[in-house]
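Might you be able to check the backbone structure tokens below? Thank you kindly.
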Amino acid sequence: MKRIGTALTIVFIIAGFAISFFIGHYVSDKSHTESRAAQFDKYISRAIDTIEDKGLSIDGAPEMIASNIWVAHEFCDSPEISAELSNLWNTIVYEKDELLGQEDVLTAQLKNILEKCQ
């Protein structure tokens, strides 16, 4: 009888450790995902603010916008949105002259991306 009680105690202790491990892992993953989403929102918002405040014609602004978009791309968990950000980044870096005067279109694209992720 004593052996059964000891065995049950050991089983409960092991089960408790296993359950606490899995709960901790779940909470950690959830926290990590929320942190990535917050970072994504932050960098897209910075890009939008830069476009609205400085536009694309000010020296260095396209580089700041492209940098924020690339960082947001790195924090993005959606392959479709990541591809969209990558294309947008390529456009800003390689064809920024074509975007001059189209700040409203670029802002609308980024706001649309931000809405898709929320």
About this structure: Residues 2-54 form the longest helix (53 residues). Residues 34-116 form one domain. The chain has a mean pLDDT of 87.
